[in-house]
């Protein structure tokens, strides 16, 4: 299986989108600082993932999720999560 995933930085709420064959290992690598692009924004929280059987499908989906239309889809897909998070920070 190939997993597309979305991480959110607990430091600044930034989102990171990627894909991998081993989601648990990759998530640990991000939080252990083994990825230079995500290291400064640790710790990370896994907020979404989906699985594909084909690597090309996963790569295409990753690219889509990184574009404006894909970002909008994620915001709609995770509407309650972002709404809850926004209200939680106000209190």
TrEMBL record:
UniProt cross-references to InterPro entries, sorted A to Z: GIY-YIG_endonuc (IPR000305), GIY-YIG_endonuc_sf (IPR035901), UPF0213_domain (IPR050190)
The family this protein is said to belong to: Belongs to the UPF0213 family.
Record-annotated GIY-YIG domain positions: 1-75
Protein name: Excinuclease ABC subunit C
Pfam families assigned: GIY-YIG
Cited SUPFAM superfamilies: GIY-YIG endonuclease
Domain of life, source organism: Bacteria
């Amino acid at each position: 299986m190939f997993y597309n995933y979305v991480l959110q930085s607990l430091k600044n709420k930034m989102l990171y989108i990627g894909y991998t064959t081993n989601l648990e290992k990759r998530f640990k690598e991000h939080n252990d600082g083994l990825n230079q692009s995500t290291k400064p924004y640790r710790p990370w929280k896994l907020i979404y993932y989906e699985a594909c059987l084909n690597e090309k499908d996963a790569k295409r989906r990753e690219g889509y999720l990184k574009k404006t239309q894909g970002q909008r889809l994620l915001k709609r897909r995770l509407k309650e999560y972002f709404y809850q998070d926004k209200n939680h920070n106000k209190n």
